[in-house]
Amino acid sequence: MNKRKLALGNRNIVGARVTEARNQIGLKQKDLLARMQVAGVPISLPALSLLEGQKRPVSDIELKALSEILEVDVRWLLGQIAKP
């Protein structure tokens, strides 16, 4: 697993939790990307990397898909609740 080289940004609040959830279930970024695309959410690998690095905003459609694919509550991604 590669370590993040740059500090996290401030464009979203879900990126670090997306990375955490993805790593916990053993998904690589490219696997998450493929699942997002199959779910009908067009996103590129650079865009996903920027999302996880909190360097780009997240759309509501992306947030919903991430929650479903990673099997986590949207509220957890948003930092509103603790992980069950």
Structure description:
- This protein is an all-alpha fold and 84 residues long.
- The protein has a single domain (15-77), classed as lambda repressor-like DNA-binding domains (434 Repressor (Amino-terminal Domain), Orthogonal Bundle), CATH 1.10.260.
- 51% of the residues lie in helices and 0% in strands.
- The protein is built from five helices and no strands.
- The chain is globular and about 30 Å long.
- The chain starts with 14 loop residues before the first helix and ends in a 7-residue tail after the last helix.
- The relative contact order is 0.21.
Mean pLDDT: 93
At CATH's second level, what is the architecture?
Orthogonal Bundle
Proportion of residues in extended strands: under 5%
Q: Class, according to the CATH hierarchy?
A: Mainly Alpha
> Could you give the count of β-strands?
0
Helix content: 40-55%
As residue ranges, the low-confidence spans are none
CATH superfamily caption: lambda repressor-like DNA-binding domains
Major sheet: none
CATH fold-type name: 434 Repressor (Amino-terminal Domain)
Write the H/E string, N to C.
Answer: HHHHH
Structural class, judged by helices and strands? mainly alpha
- The radius of gyration is 12 Å
Secondary structure tally, helices: 5
Total domains: 1
Tell me the span between the first and last alpha carbons: 25 Å
Q: Which word captures the global form?
A: globular
